[in-house]
């Protein structure tokens, strides 16, 4: 997690940057629901923070495209509320096959 390519960012630094950004968004919108749209690498870091899984552990959870992942931001840190919800995509799949 501490390795960084020349001129690049280590996974530890990336995690710190992502979590700091999440903290800023949560503080600016305290008590409100907020939607963040981001890449899987960022979502993976949020999952790890919410479940206290270390960066050097292999991923054992699903991380689907266009899924909804719900987290709760509290003073104690992140908590996992819902993960990898793709139910909003179900009707789209049916539409694709009825042409």
How does this structure look, described?
The chain contains three helices and two strands. It has 99 residues and is an alpha+beta fold. The mean pLDDT is 91. A hairpin with a 2-residue loop joins strand 1 (68-74) and strand 2. Helix content is 38%, strand content 16%. It is globular and about 45 Å long. Strands 1-2 form a two-stranded antiparallel ribbon.
Short description, anyone?
The chain is α+β, with helices and mostly antiparallel strands and 99 residues long. It has helices at residues 11-28, 40-51, 90-97, and strands at 68-74, 77-85.
Straight-line distance between termini: 47 Å
Sum up the overall morphology in one term: globular
Structural class: alpha+beta
Total strand count, please? 2
Q: Helix coverage percent of residues?
A: 25-40%
Mean pLDDT: 91
The topology string of helices and strands comes to HHEEH
Characterize the main sheet.
2 strands, antiparallel
How much strand? 15-25%
Strand order of the largest sheet: 1-2
Q: Which stretches of 5+ consecutive residues score pLDDT under 50?
A: none
Q: How many DSSP H or I helices?
A: 3
In angstroms, what is the radius of gyration?
Answer: 16 Å
């Amino acid at each position: 997690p501490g390795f960084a390519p020349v001129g690049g960012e280590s996974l530890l630094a990336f995690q710190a940057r992502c979590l700091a950004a999440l903290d800023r968004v949560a503080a600016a919108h305290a008590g409100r629901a907020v939607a963040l749209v981001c890449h899987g690498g960022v979502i993976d870091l949020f999952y790890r923070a919410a479940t206290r899984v270390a960066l050097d552990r292999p991923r054992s959870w699903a991380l689907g495209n266009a899924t909804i992942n719900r987290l709760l931001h509290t003073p104690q840190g992140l908590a996992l509320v819902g993960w990898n919800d793709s139910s909003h995509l179900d009707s789209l799949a049916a539409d694709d096959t009825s042409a």
